[in-house]
Amino acid sequence: xxxxxxxxxxxxxxxxxxxxxLDIQHGALAYPLPQYADDSVEVVRAAHILEHYHFAxxxxxxxxxxxxxxxxxxxxxxxxxxxxxxxxxxxxxxVPNLEWIASTFLSGHDEPTQGYIMGGNADDNDHxxxxxxxxxxxxxxxxxxxxxxxQWESEVKDCASHPVSLNLMGWKGxxxxxxxxxxxxxxxxxxxxxxxxxxxxxxxxxxGIMTWPRFGPTDAFMSVLQIPQLGIDIETQGGPFWHQxxxxxxxxxxxxxxxxxxxxxxxFDTAFGPSDVIELTRIMEExxxxxxxxPIQMKRGDNNPLFMLMxxxxxxxxxxxxxPREELxxxxxxxxxxxxxxxxxxxxxxxRRMPKPWLHAxxxxxGSWGPSKLDADIYFWHKWRELGNTLHLALRVVVGHLxxxxxxxxxxxxxxxxxxxxxxxxxxxxxxxx
Length: 434
What we know:
Elements: E1 6-9, E2 20-22, E3 41-47, E4 60-62, E5 67-69, H1 72-84, E6 85-96, H2 98-106, H3 113-118, H4 134-143, E7 146-151, E8 165-172, H5 179-183, E9 206-212, H6 221-225, E10 233-238, H7 242-254, E11 262-266, E12 270-271, H8 274-286, E13 292-296, E14 308-309, H9 325-329, E15 333-338, E16 343-347, H10 348-352, H11 376-386, E17 391-398, E18 400-401, E19 405-409, E20 415-419, H12 420-426
Parallel strand pairs: 1-2, 1-3, 3-6, 9-10, 9-11, 13-17
Antiparallel strand pairs: 4-5, 6-8, 7-8, 11-16, 12-18, 13-16, 14-15, 15-17, 19-20
């Protein structure tokens, strides 16, 4: 029995097994498809192809756009794709999502907006002639005879796997029996790497310390509740001045007789798991020359990470540093200038060498708290390095940072997530219920 015919239109360099992979670079057009008979194809997959055709002419009414919308360019292309499908055949379409593009642009995120809308313009074929949001694309697919329209996830890392991608699929004429159940399953993912083997650390080796606000969110405390299973005790310190509380805990446990080997600083708004603590400990145990190690964590309110690489000039912490990914993939940690105390392991022996105050905020030269100020944690790491102590970034440990968000209903009563600071700056996000 012959294998079902499946087409991957605009395949580029990513060829899917089990598909006939067609790309203009190899002389195979996505439209028209005269080489394929009517009702002959099981699946047509067209990822980031449709937007390259023109949004011009007449023939389609889109209620979502609230005016008569001309489609013969993209409409004719989609009708050709549907023509070759068997009854019950599946069309999977992916296009740039105009709603996502607008939202991220207005939110101030650093994204290649021009390229998303206009195309990369790398050659004569790399231009966009149409834009889509979900209602427009759904309406077009329904007009072309597709039913059961729903979202899908890309099975490979291509344009359809990017957050900007709007992925919709529908069946020609009817949904085959069992198809809905099949496509309710999540898309296949690359297998995860085997977790590192556990390490044995004697009880009392690590003392966990954390500051705790008098009032505040407690969701991430579930992370802390998993720590005792590793044989780590936790002590908290409340109050409005986090750096004072943290130094008190540092002093108490690093200077006591028969105290711990390490201190594990924990922020109340850090999301992590036991495996993250295990990897931090493994790095410190295997590399005694490292005095402190912290994970990769993002700052709230913008796209900056909470660490500064050694390659970054101290006078310009915002400067972008480019490091080959291959270099990072061969390392488990690398030296950094400054880090965060969200989940940081500190060697007590190294801490005891450091003169006090350990955590101390320093204002600008003119006495104000402007851009030249030193926050208490940055002050700590500057003094740390002056003593010759080292700080490393654990490249395999990634932890979360709680950020307050607002949830809005869209026009289909689905959630739109928006960080509260974006609402304060820009108001309600695009696409909310009107």
